[in-house]
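Quick illustration, no need to memorize.
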Amino acid sequence: MTHMFVEVYYLTQVALIPAFIREFNLSLLETSLVATVPSFLQLLANLPSGFLTERLTTRQLLFASMMAEGLSAFLVSRAANFWFLVLGVSAMRLCSPIYHISGLSRISHIVGREGVSRSMGFHNALGNFGSAIGLISLSAFQSTIGWRWTYAFWAFPILAWGFFLLRIEELGTRTQDGGGNMTGLSSLPSVLTKAFIVFLIAIGFNVVGLTGVQTYMTTYLVEVRGIPDSMASLIFGLGPFIGIMGSLNGGYIGEKVGPKGALSLAILCSAVSISSLALLAPLYLLMIAYLVYMFFSSSVWSPMNSIVANITPEVGRGFSYSVYFLTEGIVVSITPTIMAASIGLAEIWFIFPFSMIFMVIGLIVLQIVSCPR
C-alpha cells in the first residue's frame, strides 16, 4: 500500500505539462523545470536517505515519507503561480528516496536472494497501480472540476495511511539487519565494486530513454495528434495499468533466467516497440504500440532492483540503493531539459529515436556486468 501511495502522483505532473503551458503561459523548455527541479532535489536526498536507513526504524521512515507527500500535495493544489507549483512538487518528491531506499533494503533482507526477483515484481506492480489510479483520477478531475483536485483528493488517504503505519509494531525495527560494524559513509568503498559501477552506467543510459518518452508522451499526443488534455491523460494512464503486468512479468522472468537476462530482454523489447511509436498513423495502432512499450519498459524495474541486491554486500545495503537511486535521479533530473532543447532543434517526434538509441547503448553496456543468478 505504501508504494502505491508513493507513486500515485509520480506521473501526474508530466501528464499535466500541456495544461501548465496554457495556465502559466510557459514555453516547453520552461515547463520542463517541473520535472527537472524536483528530480534534482530528489537525487540530493538519496545519500542522506541511505544514511537514515542505518539509523531509524522502518516505521519512522515510512511515516516521514507519507507526511512529506501528503502535505506537499496540499501545497500543489493551492499553487498560485508556477514557482509555487515547482516548490510543491519538489517537496513531494522527497518522499520517494525516503521510502524506496528503506523499503527495498528491508525487502532484500527479508526474502533473501532466492525470492528477491518475485518480491520486487509484486512491489513494483503496486507502484504501477498507484501511478495508474493517479492518472485515471487526474483524467476525471481534469474534465470536470480541475486538475488541482487530484492532489487534494489523494492527500487525505496518504496522511491517514502514514499515521496508521505508526501503529504497526513489526515495522519498529531498523531497515538493516545484517549486523556488522560498517556503518555510515565508510561502507561506500565496499559498495562501489567494478560490477556495480558498470551496472550504474548501463541503467543510466536506459533511464535516459525511459524518461524521454515518459516526460513528453502526453505533449506529443496533444500537440501532434490533437487529442484533448483529458483524453491524453487517460491514454497515458492506461500505461501504468499495463505496467502492473509488466512488473510481475519482470519478476517472473528474473526468477527463471536470472535478473540480468530478464533486464536485457526487457530493454531490447522496449527499444523495438518504441521504434514504431512515431511511425504509426492510426491512433488505435499508436495506442497498441504504446501499451506494448509500457509492458516491456515496466519489466525493467524488478530485475534492476534485484541486481542491486545480488551484486552488493548485505551490510550497507541501504547505501547500495542510495547510490543506485542517486544515479537514476541524476539522469531523470537532466533528461527533460536536454530533451526539450533537442525538441526545439528538431520536432517532438524526436523523443522516440532519441530514447531508443540510449536504450540500445544501455543494453550493450549491461552485457559487461557479471551478475549471479
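Confidence is low (pLDDT under 50) at residues 177-184.
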